[in-house]
Write a structure and sequence with these properties.
The protein is mainly alpha-helical. It has one domain. Helix content is 80%, strand content 0%.
Length: 152
């Protein structure tokens, strides 16, 4: 093995390590999982709290989406990767979309005539798609912000 081969191998390993750090992050999935669960619960009950002060469902959903995106960017900027940012965003979006598009809150959808599972799966699937889009974009923005602050 020559010195050039070792240099190329080191460069390839460095690129793989950088890609792994961007995808998985340095913070790990534990924090993302906890914040996703907390975000789901808070987003689901936020509609009750905002209705008490006169905000409608659309305004509440927009506010929750903005807070979720800001949280995912902040998570990614502090060492979270793209996959944990997607996981973090899923919980709040699932709570928001389940409450806004799903069945009547706090009531099982058995009397509606449609399959009960369909009332839950559509909002949760949409939340997954939105979480992938927002989480990936947040990871890019967060990574760029961390690079900018590190260069100062």
């Amino acid at each position: 093995m020559t010195g050039d081969d070792a240099t190329e191998g080191d460069a390839a390993a460095s690129r793989r390590a950088a890609l792994r750090r961007i995808a998985v992050g340095e913070t790990g999935f534990e924090r993302a999982t906890v914040w996703s669960a907390v975000g789901f619960a808070l987003s689901y009950v936020a509609f009750d709290a905002t209705a008490a002060v006169g905000l409608g469902g659309a305004e509440t959903a927009g506010l929750l989406a903005a807070v979720t995106a800001i949280g995912a960017v902040a998570f990614a900027a502090t060492g979270g990767g793209a996959l944990p940012a997607i996981l973090l965003a899923y919980g709040p979006f699932a709570g928001t979309l389940l409450r806004e598009l799903g069945p009547e809150p706090y009531v099982l959808p058995l009397a509606s005539g449609s399959p009960a599972a369909a009332a839950f799966t559509a909002p949760l699937a949409l939340a997954g798609a939105v979480a992938v889009a927002v989480g990936a974009a947040s990871a890019v923005v967060g990574y760029l912000l961390s690079r900018i602050t590190a260069s100062r």
